Amino acid sequence: MATCLICLGMAGSGKTTFVQRVNAYLHSRQTPPYIVNLDPAVHEVPFPANIDIRDTVKYKEVMKQYGLGPNGGIVTSLNLFATRFDQAIKFIEKKQHDYKYVLFDTPGQIEVFTWSASGSIITDSLASTCPTVIVYVMDTSRCVSPITFMSNMLYACSILYKSRLPFVLVMNKIDIVSHDFAIEWMTDFESFQQAVDEEGSYMANLTSSMNLVLDEFYNNLKTVGVSAVTGEGLDEFFTAVDSAREEYLT
Predict the structure, then answer these.
(1) I want to staple 57 with a disulfide (CB 3.0 to 4.6 A). Which of 7, 77, 132, 205 is the partner?
(2) Count of alpha carbons within 13 Å of 52, Cβ hemisphere only?
(3) CA gap 173, 161 in Å, rounded
(4) Rounded Cα–Cα distance for residues 77 and 59 (Å)
(5) Buried-exposed string 95-112: b where 16+ CB fall within 10 A, e elsewhere
(6) What pLDDT is attached to residue 112?
(7) d(Cα 149, Cα 151) in Å, to the nearest integer?
(8) Domains, the chain, ranges and CATH?
(9) pLDDT for the residue numbered 97
């Protein structure tokens, strides 16, 4: 049975590039994935999508027809696609014995997918059909600031509790900045506290308190450092995915 990987991440986190790299990695292992593009506003995808929302819903026509802005157009496009998602599920079910992994690339406007009704419908439909793992991609180079790091962790935590599915945190762009500092912050409160004090922000007390609150979240979090550009860390990523799959099955 195939494992579904729903890739989420803020705009600019390298999520689509990550999906492209995972696709290339799996092809090199002779286990090509089944890929679903859920971003209706993207001009081009750098990988061959087996199912593409753009074939079903025309984003610009939706904006024009309903008088919507860019984000409203994406939400409405996803809502329209969600009404037919049972057909996509049938395609995936037919193919799930031919593929080991099914990759889902989502819109860069992360809240459009994570907090919309259509996002919940798609996620819940997949989770009831086959092993499903949430892959949260974050930009490590942006998280060298402890406050930005904490914002990302809070978002990741909220997605975990909303989806209630196995969760893998991917620290992307380690070819620019190593993710060692982030791992240290997650395992050593004193180290994080020192970084917060050095920044000297008015948010320091709140950020420190949040780090204590998230301690339990960190302890059970599968975290891997990856470079979507070089492919570094993908072996560790799939080890984490296999572990998350076992978590789903048990």
Answers:
(1) 77
(2) 14
(3) 26
(4) 6
(5) ebeebbbbbbbbbbbbeb
(6) 86
(7) 5
(8) 1-130 (3.40.50.300), 137-249 (3.40.50.300)
(9) 85
Quick: pLDDT tens for 134-154.
999 999 999 999 999 999 999
CA 44, 47, 52, 53 dihedral sign is negative
Mean pLDDT of 43-49: 92
The encoded tokens of residue 209 equal 């308190």
**Amino acid sitting at position 223:** T
How far CA 18 is from CA of 34, 42, 46, 125, 201, in Å, comes to 15, 15, 10, 24, 32
pTM above 0.70, yes or no: yes
Q: Cα separation of 246 and 241, whole Å?
A: 9
